[in-house]
Amino acid sequence: MQRKYADPPPQFADIGRWCGFFMSLRGVAIVMVDVDALVPPDHLLRKVERVMDYDWLYERLSPYYCADNGRPGTDPVVLIKMVLIQHLFGIASLRQTYRDIQVNVAYRWFLGYSLLEEIPHFATVSYAFCKRFPPELSEEIFAHILNKALNNRMVDPSMIFIDGTHIKASANKKKFQKEQVAKAAKVYEEQLRKEVSEERKKLGKKVNDDDDDENKGSSGGGTVEKTVSKTDPDCGMFVKGAHERQFAYEAHTACDKHGFVLGVEVTAGNVSDSAAWDAVYDQVTNSFPEVKFVTMDAGYKTPWIAKKVLEHSRIPILPYTRYKGKNDKFKPWDFTYDAATDSFTCPRGHELRHTTTSKEGKRTYRSSPKICKDCPCRTVCGANESGQRILTTHIWQEYLDLVEHLRKTERGKELYAMRKETIERVFADAKEKHAMRYTHHRGLARVSAWVRLKYAAMNLKKIAIGKWNASNFASYIMIFAPFNDKTPVLVF
Question: What's the pTM?
Answer without folding.
Answer: 0.84
